[in-house]
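Residues pack. One example:


***
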Amino acid sequence: MRDTVVIEEIGLPPPLVEMGYSGTVAAHRLWDSTQWINDHAGTTKDRASLIAASRQLKITEPGTGLSASGVVQMVRQLIGREQPRIAAEFICRDVECSLEKMELRLRVFSGDGMEVTNAGRLGDLESEEVINAYFDQAALALLKIIDPYVRASFLYAVEQGALTPTARARATVLVKTLDPLSADSDQPRSTIEALALLRARHPQGAWAGLLLAVQEYRNGNMEATLIRAGESVTHMQADRIVHFPNALSARGSAFLNLGNVAEAIQEYKAALAIDPEYISAMVGLGNAFSQSGRTQEVIEKYEMVFTLDPANIYANNGWGTTLRKHGDNKSAIEKFNASLEVDPTFDAAFDNWIVSLTVILDSADPEMCAQFSELFPNIERYANTPQRAIVLADRFEDTTTLCSRPSGKDLSDLEEIRFGGFGEDPIAFSTTIPPKGNWIILDSNLPPDSTIAVSLKSIDEVLSVHVLDRNHRLVGERDAQMIDKPALGQRVVFKAGSGPYLLRMRHLRPTESSATVVVSRADEWAIRAD
């Protein structure tokens, strides 16, 4: 259990008091900024617990007249364990005590003595944002003394862009106040500060080694991950840290990525021996069992994860991968969807979802559209990057067209082109194509196996064209042969008989486009369509 650090009322010089500022409020603002950094550090480590002195409960022991906190302080002095505390004051660096030369000095008292740091010059207090930014700066300086790993972890979160847009903007302003790195440094600030903790054999060295291991892992350097995680384990053992499964689990993940499944299983089990509910090791062990074909153990391990974290995206993705290996792509997609429902940006689940859906559609029966409608989630939601949009269009544009035809109710509202034979000229029909495309009914009364050509004229865009029969089957799509006439778009040639067909037209414009549909016998199309 870590001691709570008390922030005492901050001393203010007369100019700040005359401006209406309070030492108690200043202490609260320093606490607020420290907590904000803690909350955005992206770490599971127990963080320094701070409390402003004015927020401590004042309880008097009955019959003694002594406060409870006073009694605690006396006991601490008797056993030689003083309350960690922070004393701070704004000091003047010039005779006039101007704001531009004023700075906040922080003194941290602990069992190891006193350490002093400062938050830099105050400057103009022109807005609340400026004041908040100054206390953020002070909190970051304070954490370098009381919780340097959390500071390094926060800096890494900023470097990785892992914060929300609002937090990222605030953090960017904060990081700019730090001293610039040396010109010859090729490492980010978080790495430099974590390495400094390792070299100093700081009590937080195990966590520093873990941060470096995570950085190497995310950069794809598995051998370096093993080295850094090993350093973390060494510090854990030397400092006799009892509850620290993290580095062992990180080694397991590195071994698994290197294909050393047996070593990975050993490391994950060692991590779970320390903490049987450590979710990262549970998921990793499930993945290792999956790679070694131990299906029943995979399911057992993922089910244990879900009892602790029902929405765990990694367990859902791992379980889906196992199901896909056993040919159950439909159930696999349900797992990948569960991951993406929680985190639509999770690329591993998205990639797996694409693979399983492709397998299903490639082997689909005539009722493919029913399966497609059931299994295919909201494309717009998952196509949240340009790269994903390209993949989805590449794989599933034709299938989407096939399976998104109008319902029976909508058919009555569609434009219609009727043809039962052709005279001297092809049939020309003017229409418009909105951004999401347009459907037109082709009502044919032709003998079976009549070869028909449908072309589109448009001066705006090259259009995509599909023709479907009444059973959702694709009977014709855009012709690979392009016509050497600039005003022509694309054409479809198909075998037509009696009965209605649906013509699907799409373009790439964000606005409505005009077009002319030309229907003719295929042998007339080339000479008549213009």
In short: Residues 128-146 form the longest helix (19 residues). The radius of gyration is 34 Å.
